[in-house]
Write a structure and sequence with these properties.
Number of helices: 2
Number of strands: 3
CATH topology of one domain: Cytidine Deaminase, domain 2
Structural class: alpha+beta
Distance between the termini: 29 Å
CATH class of one domain: Alpha Beta
Helix content: 25-40%
Order of helices and strands: HEHEE
Shape: globular
Strand order of the largest sheet: 1-2-3
Radius of gyration: 13 Å
Length: about 90
């Protein structure tokens, strides 16, 4: 039987930014003995377009997770009206 853990880590930020540390995500993945990870966050501004910070975080996190053999499957951006998958857009 396959075990799936859903982790909700509520970070606080401002209307246009929040601090996300790849180190903390890696620590959580190690603690849970994760084989793969999907990250999602909201854009309260309503714009579903990934920011440069979103794209940079995705690349840093992908590299960090690869070092510990955890697959980074997707980074999803959620707004009130749509959901964007960076994997589907080829931006992973």
């Amino acid at each position: 039987m396959k075990k799936t853990d859903i982790i909700v880590d509520k970070r606080r930020g401002t209307i246009n930014q929040a601090s996300v540390y790849p180190r903390e995500i890696v620590k959580t993945a190690l603690r849970l003995n994760a084989a793969a990870l999907i990250m999602a966050h909201n854009h309260p501004s309503g714009s579903s377009e990934p920011s440069m910070a979103d794209l940079n975080l995705t690349q840093h996190l992908r590299k960090a997770l690869a070092l510990i053999d955890v697959r980074f499957l997707d980074h999803v951006i959620v707004t009130a009206s749509e959901t964007i998958s960076l994997a589907e857009r080829g931006e992973m």
